[in-house]
Amino acid sequence: MTMTEPGTRGGAVRSVPDLVPEELVALTRRLGDPAADLVVLAEGNTSTRLPDGRFVVKASGARMDQADASGFVVVEPSELVRALDNPHTTQDELSALLADGAGRRASIETLVHLAALEYGGAEWVAHTHPTAVVGLLSIEEAEALWNAPLFPDEAVVLGRPAWVPYTEPGLALGRAVVAAIRGYAETEGQPPRLVLLGNHGIVALGRTAAEVEAVTTMCVKAARVRSVALGAGRLAPLDPVHAAALAGRPDEVERRRLLRRAAGGEAR
Ligand SMILES: [Zn+2]
What we know:
By secondary structure, the chain is an alpha+beta fold. The protein is 43% helix and 12% strand. The protein has eleven helices and eight strands. The protein has helices at 22-32, 77-85, 91-97, 110-119, 131-136, 142-145, 152-158, 171-188, 209-232, 240-246, 250-262; strands spanning 13-14, 45-49, 55-58, 72-75, 124-128, 162-164, 194-197, 201-206. Helix 4 (110-119) packs parallel to helix 8 (171-188). The relative contact order is 0.14.
């Protein structure tokens, strides 16, 4: 495939519009619709895995609402994984890897996608900055505010989100998202469907384009519900055991039930 592909060889990135799935372009345009208020200008980015193991991610500077195949680049993940794993990698070295050698660059947030695809088991990823959510990621209580779901559909669609405190975009943010996804998978037994980035935005992970769109939309709804609830009184989150059951974690429910029994508490 490498022999026949057009596009100029750069670091880990090539511009190959023919390889960009139409479904990715369509998803990107829908998420970029100004009416959805998920992004403005060139904010946000989307990605998906290709059958050959590489992935396609939005190019730097491209607008989501005007996306077409030329606004994406193809990334070879192995070189980026090596860069992430090497504690001596500099931001300049990363920037060189993200250029295609002909003036096209992958988004500086490509490492967030790499984290979700390589360490989070995702096939599709959408990173956006929804106004309704970013507001609630920019307060001192943000982490606690998002720690437990408030309504059943939030628990079902989002599960418990992973949390990443504000980190400078680029290498540092990529490493922080990898660490958060790994830590989450260790404690929860599965990767997150949603990663919240403090003072920044959200990352939706899914097996399909529809899944990442659903996670994004539900996260915005969950933010609006929080805003309404906070204006009316104190939050009353769902019971964690019930929330875990809704999120499809019968093993977790059973474990907590056994713990409660062992502690002499009520067995539900
Ligand atoms: Zn961002």
